[in-house]
Amino acid sequence: MPALIDLIREGRAVQHHGPWPRAVVDLAAWSFAVGQLSEGHWSLLGLWGEMDAVHMALLDQPAGEMAVVSLACPQRRYLSVAERHPPAIRLERTIRDLFGLEPEGLLDVRPWLDHGHWGVRHPLGVRQTDPPAFPLPVLPPYEFLRVDGPSLHQIPVGPVHAGIIEPGHFRFTANGEVVVRLEERLGYVHKGIEGLMAGADLDRAVRLVGRVSGDSTAAYALAFSQAAESALQIEAPARAVWLRALMAELERLANHLGDIGAICNDASFALMHTHCGVLRERVLRACDTGFGHRLMRDCIVPGGVAADLGPVGIAAVRALIEEIRRRFPALIELYDNTASLQDRTVATGVLAAALAHQYGAGGYVGRASGRAFDARRAPGYPPYEKLSFDVPVRQDGDVNARVWIRIQEVEQSLSLVEQILERLPDGPVRVEVAPAREAREGVALVEGFRGDVLVWLRLAGSGKVERCHLRDPSWFQWPLLEAVIEGNIVADFPLCNKSFNCSYSGHDL
Amino acid sequence: MRKHLFECLIRPPFTERSPSAGDATMAELAAGLDRAARRRLGRSLSIRAVDAGSCNGCELEMHALNNAFYDIERFGIRFVASPRHADVLLVTGPVTKNMREALERTYDATPNPKWVVAIGDCALDGGCFAGSYAVVGGVSEVVPVDLHIRGCPPSPTEILKGLLALLEHANAERRAP
Predict the structure, then answer these.
(1) Which of A133, A427, B65, B80 is deepest in the core (most CB within 10 A)?
(2) CB neighbours (10 Å) of residue A332?
(3) Is the ipTM of this structure higher than 0.90?
(4) List of chain A residues whose C-beta atoms are within 8 Å of the C-beta of residue B55
(5) Helix (H, G, I), strand (E, B), or coil: what is residue A91?
């Protein structure tokens, strides 16, 4: 079986693209790559557009290789990936909305992010604006997929939800209490971030990137900084690299602790929610003491980190770890020994391993369904090769499995934080970032708490961002939520949904 | 589970006490909020959160208001599931064009008297997203705003402070002829 690297050799390699290669390929090679995806040999890491080209990031997991392949679209059309590989459907609908590039063979051509309110069609491609004299044609009303059968009823939910959560629309079709189909409609919080990124300098760009998904601000800033540093061929100082990992693990801890409690709360088990909420607040306060911001926003920047961690911060993080180690085991026991709670989480919302693999589902969603992938391990990035940690994997794929993966990841992150504090090198925390005077490209894959965040960028010679694509792990998790709810009762949807906890803002961008 | 419940009986609460202990801001806040809320609304203020385009950062801090440290319900303030039950809309985010209609409809569904509090730098003027083809701008471009609480995101304490200011303002309004 040909490896990914052979495909790259066949194409025209792009200079100044790092750390993995990018090649411009012809239609035959593009089609071959789609075949490899559809047969399950490779995973799709991302698919994004430009004015007159499409790019696809690929992972050859057995060989441990990553690459980007690009196809020129002079006719503003390209061979659909989604036609043979369904995980690409929403990505292609997005490319169509934003760039006006037509995927040949795509069956579902309903708009995805474009709800018809922007006053412009194809905002990042050949723009069709809305001058008063020639109004844009009004988009037809969004048609949900048909559901046929006796005794079915529909429940529309959102975009404004009952809790303090992000907006999105869920269309349930149920037979009595049993859900027979869920269809998601997203795009409500589309802010046009990739449009704002074009022409931004690195300072502004990293601020925007830190506001793609508020719960993953450190992961996004880390991925962007790594991609920019790869492009410019600079290295962040050792201490900064370790501090970045510390922030990433603290962010993982805060989110996992909060969500473990919130999942239980969706089964009306408030006690767990309260205690986990206390631990989450402790993490945020330690972050505030150590890094000056509860969510560690704008702390990771290209070239290093914005501020060093002082002795007071180190003491706060040490005290935090000590407290979680003291309190968390009793909470795990509480989760494990409460039969009424287990009754709700076990065998609920089962994600089949085959789907997790097909979609390349990252994070706890994939790892609870047998997909042993963690970007910290492979492709890997410093300092994780110097740290010892396990990547927990389960096969059962239900809400319970996703909770357990997160419980185990809390334990791993506690250990990682201790190791990092133990071995934190001294020295500067930031180097100057100078423009390269020529176009440079970089890519990075970083493990956020939710899964792998992909950032690809091209910097102009001036140092400004020419094009930057940000792919949230949710792109490959949202469609799976539709699959896992099938056959479950409506009342279990909040549990399933929270056990995925996909990002709306990260997805809608 | 019994173990946890017993432990809670003997352990001091996490909640940062209003007047007697805790830091000065919290104490001042708690006392002030209590007085104002009681005068105006007889100890009750129902809040409906609306994310009109936020990155989710402000939502995380609004969630924190419900944790044991801030315990917002002790002030008589609680989050409700429907705008029809709400006195206050807490709106976050630069309002996206795709959320504009939903925000307007949520506002219209909220009974009078009502107040709108815009949370976060984006909700003030669009923040770093201002100027995008997909963004309307600040919340006040879509619905009338009574108060802005700045920050990216504002901390739970700052949000509490803002709600206090709103209550004071609402009372001043009532006293005016």
Answers:
(1) B65
(2) 16
(3) yes
(4) 211-214, 217, 505
(5) helix
Long-range contacts of A19-23 (CB under 8 A, 24+ apart): A19/A230, A19/A442, A19/A443, A20/A65, A20/A66, A20/A67, A20/A68, A20/A379, A20/A443, A21/A67, A21/A68, A22/A55, A22/A67, A22/A68, A22/A69, A22/A70, A22/A441, A22/A443, A23/A67, A23/A68, A23/A69, A23/A70
What tens digit of pLDDT does each residue of A74-92 get?
Answer: 999 999 999 999 999 999 9
Q: Is B167 helix (H, G, I), strand (E, B) or coil?
A: helix
A199 — pLDDT class (breaks 50, 70, 90): very high
Over range A57-62, report the average pLDDT: 92
CA pair distance B11, A327, nearest whole angstrom: 13
Tell how many helices (H) and how many strands (E) occur in chain B.
Answer: 6, 7
What distance in Å separates residue A117's CA from the closest CA in chain B? Answer: 6
Report the chain A residue with the minimal C-alpha distance to residue B56.
A214
Distances (CA, A) of A74 to A34, A102, A295: 20, 11, 43
Q: How confident is the model at residue B34 (pLDDT cuts 50, 70, 90)?
A: low
| Candidate from B57, B97, B122 with C-beta closest to A295 | B57
Beta strands in A196-308 (DSSP E): 300-301, 304-305
Q: In 3-state terms, what secondary structure has residue B62?
A: helix
Find, among A340, A296, A347, A343, the residue nearest to A317 by Cα. Answer: A296
Instruction: Tell me: pLDDT of A234 over 60.
Output: yes
- d(CA A164, nearest CA chain B) in Å: 6
Handedness of CA A81, A86, A87, A93 (dihedral sign): positive
Measured between beta carbons, the chain B residues lying within 8 angstroms of A136 are: none
Contacts of A504 in chain B (CB under 8 A): 56
**At residue A211, what are phi and psi to the nearest 5 degrees?**
-120, 20
Decide if B72 contacts B65 (C-beta within 8 A): yes
pLDDT of B20 reads 32
Summarize the confidence of residues A222-238 as an average pLDDT.
97
* Predicted model pTM: 0.94
Is residue B177 very low, low, confident or very high in pLDDT (cuts 50, 70, 90)? very low
Of A191, A204, A277, the CB nearest to B53: A191
- What chain A residue is nearest to B154 in terms of C-alpha separation? A294
Q: Beta strands of A193-291 (E only): which ranges? A: none
Mean pLDDT of A103-114: 95
